[in-house]
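Severity: low
Component: inverse-folding endpoint
Summary: output formatting inconsistent between runs
Steps to reproduce: submit the following structure tokens with default settings.
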């Protein structure tokens, strides 16, 4: 559904050329949710602007459902943008309009008949759980309710793609969960393709099927969530399932273990204790189900009369990725 190929964006700043996006390539299948993560200045905002044609890329292509948006004429840009629904960090509602009037706004811009607008707005507000707040103004709504109105407005043009730019960073944890659940449900209900721009790893873990790490305008890591977390050499997997860096007992070896699929459910540590006459102390860890696969990341302290090399070899044979903690 979304294919970005060799996307590049440069700006002139006096005599200097600033490269904001450098050869960005990614693909998002229809009906899935893809996360773009990165620190401030990584190029996330520029990517959003290029995807929505607010900025023309310097080179490369953005193809949505077979149509290259970078080749759209200036006179057709507004029509092309209707294929992408935009959800903003702070909802960006018009204070002088009610919830229903905010949702109606994009339909009014394309001169949709009033009867059709009323029907569509009612359906969308019901879809996001705000039917009873149709006549409420933004000042009368909570942060989560405002974001729901923003989502309904983004869906008014029946887009193929929903682009969410930091959709929960201004919300409290409980409201964040509600909004993420709504986005996930809408993806399935409407068969949307969703791109989430975020710096919050929790958002990626909670709803994304795949993820890309953007650094200094380049995609550093990219892939399905299971592959990214299961990559022992990648930094993104460790950010999604982090472990502390401090040692508990400097005299004993510590191992960082990544367990994927069956190894995350098998009694690997119990068998290690029995087989190697070892005392195993779990210092920190987590076991989670991400994108349908079970993962465990543990830091363990091992006290055994057997060489640590034999223990790590056994764990690797059992399907556990092992690193000796620094």
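Observed output (run 2 of 3):
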């Amino acid at each position: 559904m979304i294919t970005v190929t060799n996307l590049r964006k440069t700006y002139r700043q006096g005599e200097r050329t600033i490269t904001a996006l450098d050869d960005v390539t990614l693909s998002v299948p229809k009906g899935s949710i893809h996360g773009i993560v990165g620190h401030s200045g990584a190029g996330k905002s520029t990517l959003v602007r290029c995807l929505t044609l607010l900025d023309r890329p310097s080179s490369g292509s953005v193809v949505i459902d077979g149509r290259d948006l970078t080749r759209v004429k200036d006179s057709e840009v507004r029509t092309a943008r209707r294929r992408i629904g935009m959800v903003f960090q702070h909802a960006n509602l018009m204070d002088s309009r009610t919830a229903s009037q905010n949702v109606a706004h994009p339909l009014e811009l394309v001169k949709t008949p009033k009867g059709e607008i009323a029907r569509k707005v009612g359906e969308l507000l019901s879809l996001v759980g705000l039917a009873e707040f149709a006549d409420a103004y933004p000042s009368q709504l909570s942060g989560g309710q405002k974001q729901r109105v923003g989502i309904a407005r983004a869906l008014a043009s029946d887009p193929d793609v929903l682009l969410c730019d930091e959709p929960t960073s201004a919300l409290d944890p409980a409201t964040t969960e509600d909004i993420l659940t709504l986005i996930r449900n809408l993806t399935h209900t409407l068969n949307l393709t969703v791109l989430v721009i975020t710096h919050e790893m929790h958002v990626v873990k909670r709803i994304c099927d795949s993820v890309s790490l953007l650094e200094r305008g380049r995609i550093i890591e990219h892939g399905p969530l299971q592959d990214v977390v299961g990559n022992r050499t990648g930094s993104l997997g460790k950010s999604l399932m982090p472990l502390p860096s401090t040692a508990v007992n400097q005299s004993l070896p510590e191992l960082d273990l990544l367990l994927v699929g069956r190894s995350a459910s098998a009694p690997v540590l119990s068998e290690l204790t029995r087989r190697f006459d070892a005392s195993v102390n779990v210092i920190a860890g987590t076991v989670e189900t991400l994108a349908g696969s079970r993962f465990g990341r543990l830091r363990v302290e091992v006290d055994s009369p057997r060489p640590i090399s034999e223990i790590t070899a056994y764990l690797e044979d059992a399907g556990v990725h092992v690193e000796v903690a620094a």
